[in-house]
Amino acid sequence: MTEPEKTAELKITGMHCATCAITVEESLAALKDVKAAQVNFGTETALVEFDPQKVSLRELEAAVKGAGYDTINQTVTLKVGGMMCATCVETIETGLKALPGVLEASVNLGVETARVTYNPSVTSVEDMKKAIQDAGYQYLGISGEVSDEAEKAVRAKDLRDKLLRFSIGFAVSIPLMLAMYVPLPLSMQVLGYLMLVIATPVFAYVAAPIFRAAWMALRNRTLSMDVMYAMGTGVAYTASVLGTFGIVLTHEFMFYDTAIMLAAFLMLGRYLEARAKGRTSDAIRTLAGLRQKTATLLRDGAEVEVAVEDVVVGDLVLVKPGAKIPVDGEVVSGESYVDESMITGEPVPALRKAGSAVVGGTLNTNSVITIRATRVGRDTVLAQIIHMVEEAQGSKPPVQRIADTAVTYFIPAVLLIASGSFVVWYFVFHSTALFALTALISVLVVACPCALGLATPTAVTVGVGRGAELGILVRNGEALETAEHVTTVVFDKTGTLTKGKPEVIDLIPNDITEETLLSLAAAVEKNSQHPLALAVIRRAEERGIAVTAGEQFDTTGGRGVSATVLGEQVRVGNRSFLQENGVQVPPETEARIIALEKEGKTAVLVAAGEQFAGVIAIADTLKETSGEAVAALKAMGINVAMITGDNQRTADAIASRIGIGTVIAGVLPAEKEEEVRRIQQGGGVVAFVGDGINDAPALARADVGIAVGSGTDVAIESGDIVLIRDDLLDAVAAIQLAKKVMGRIKANIFWAFAYNAALIPVAAGILYPSFGITFRPELAALAMAASSVTVVSLSLLLKTYIPEVKKGR
């Protein structure tokens, strides 16, 4: 049936004029099989009529990007049930990507989610639901919209079903197995009929999910593990039926017990795997559990309890002692100690009073406070953290390509080995048909790409969740893999290594009073928000100097500022800034400046007109953990560098106090990115640690950008890794966590490969000629189950991981 033409509405960014709209329109219209394209500059949208069978949405987007613009799409995370192995992932991804409006689909087997980037004008969530169900899996809803209770109920029901099938299968298979060995007053033919009657309904019940999934896979033209398992158990049962009636096979082929036990052990494996996988998302559930469901609003002097979804920005919210703060806000009245440990990890409650910011999900401990809501819903810090963790858990690090590639060839290879083992034993070595058939069934059942499919996503899921518990937010799996290989960590100085709150230490006036020097400098700096400017203004105010902002303020990129004060041009900045403007520094003052810089102080020079007015020496205090963090990185064999706008002498003095040998000084903010690039060109893998605001270009340029947060003010968009706490030891912990997670992934992948490489040949009978060792199908099924459970269990060990640098703290 021919699919009808579709009309897509593309959200375009980067258009500045009507010409841009024409450019985009022409680029889209130039595509073959695009019937019409109309771009609206006002609404920044493009309506494109196209044939989805001949041109894809990806091609439309490529045309827009090729014209120099970009598009905006929506992303949704769907909960999916019924996935068993890596081929299930491939089946669902293929089904979702086949939808005309889907640009990208990434399925995570570990947390059983599908993250889909799509155009809502072409494809709806309802379409995705149908695609998932048509592929033979369960659509459980949109992540975040499905209540924890509902999701738990669905998963509990699924676990009960698996356990019941295993229990019934195991209970029936044992008597059937004994009946084959214990003498009974029945002929073999009667016994066969009796076993057929008992085994058939039990086998049908226990193996039903396997055959249902296999049928769905074949209907979707994919080979899944369920196809192999259905073949293995199906061959065992069919051979038993043929043996019962003496058709082709004899009574010795009656292994009903084996067929049922195979299916039962497969169900046991899935039960244990599902239980273990359920624990990989504990961190997300813990974070989601911090959400408050209701809020008490103050309206017209009365207290009104509403659902937290109904709170809007600007509402006054009353928070009583012992209650969670429902949304992000600012305290307007009252004061109380707020326990923020669940967000920041800080164990000591923080005092919050009028003007203080508070974050939703934290606990008000001892007094009533009223807050004004500033961020609600998806904009709250907690919601952003949950979203970031979910996004990271759903991502695929490059190392997973190994597993994905292996799975593509795995099932055809196993089918080849299974059929080959039968042919070799029966036709070449002339073994009995029973032996050859047993080898075939054992190979089909023991093979397991599930362990390969679970190796990466379970470790990433648990590792990212553990990171969130430690106050380390990892944006994606790729950041983990890159962080493992970091060779150089570059720290920004101000606000990262130092507290970012400089103080005026010395005043050196030149033929004027200290008060006059401070007054002139503060009048100019009043127009600036630079940390050094704020330090000058604070000192002036502390000394009771009235500060009036100068006029005609001007700034010269990272070197100085100027303004007109009382009719005279006043300049504040470094040496070169003053010298460029014809101001000479007296030789005796130059010697004082050098001495100050050797002490790690920044010398701010002031000039009035063309006359040198004096020096203001400013110093920033190092953070308590800066030295410890640098020492820990060096102990790991990682090079450490500091980058700063300070001059070389000042920078060297500060760096020497914390053991940093490589100092990149005199760097303007815009040049930090270039310095990072220079280190990369030398072959280094660079992690840049900055505050996430002023350092955005350098964070983006680095192989791994680590943004240092400040408590509840999380700069979510600023780095590959975001540290909630303002503690540099967490930067070290992030790298140690990455190394641990990647080590676990590699161990999981090795185990999965080693398991299959060792047991498939054994199941095929390779040890039989030399040692007489064979692999019974029941034991093969048990081994298969053990492999998946082992991989998930190894990943779960990350839940208790404590980075070396955090131990004992």
Could you describe the 3D structure shown?
A hairpin with a 3-residue loop joins strand 21 (551-556) and strand 22. It contains 27 helices and 30 strands. Helix 12 runs antiparallel to helix 13 (433-446). The relative contact order is 0.09. The longest helix has 35 residues, at 729-763. The two termini are 66 Å apart. With 809 residues, it is an alpha+beta fold. The model is unreliable at 711-716 (pLDDT under 50). The strands form six sheets. Strands 18-30-29-28-19-26-27 form a seven-stranded mixed β-sheet, with helices on both faces. A six-stranded antiparallel β-sheet has the order 10-9-11-17-12-15, with no helix packed on it.
Task: Provide a concise account of the structure shown.
It contains 27 helices and 30 strands.
List keywords for this structure.
single chain; 809 residues; alpha+beta; seven-stranded mixed β-sheet; six-stranded antiparallel β-sheet; 27 helices; 49% helix
Question: What layout of secondary structure does this protein have?
Answer:
Blueprint: E1 6-13, H1 18-29, E2 34-40, E3 45-50, H2 57-66, E4 70-72, E5 74-81, H3 86-97, E6 102-108, E7 113-118, H4 125-134, E8 138-142, H5 148-181, H6 188-219, H7 225-245, H8 256-279, H9 282-288, E9 294-299, E10 302-307, E11 316-319, E12 328-333, E13 336-339, H10 341-344, E14 350-352, E15 357-358, E16 363-364, E17 369-375, H11 381-393, H12 400-428, H13 433-446, H14 450-469, E18 472-474, H15 477-484, E19 488-492, H16 493-497, E20 503-509, H17 514-525, H18 531-542, E21 551-556, E22 560-565, E23 568-573, H19 575-580, H20 587-598, E24 602-608, E25 611-619, H21 626-635, E26 639-643, H22 648-658, E27 662-664, H23 672-681, E28 686-690, H24 696-701, E29 704-708, E30 721-723, H25 729-763, H26 768-771, H27 777-796
Parallel strand pairs: 19-26, 19-28, 26-27, 28-29, 29-30
Antiparallel strand pairs: 1-3, 1-4, 2-3, 5-7, 5-8, 6-7, 9-10, 9-11, 11-17, 12-15, 12-17, 13-14, 13-16, 18-30, 20-25, 21-22, 22-23, 23-24, 24-25
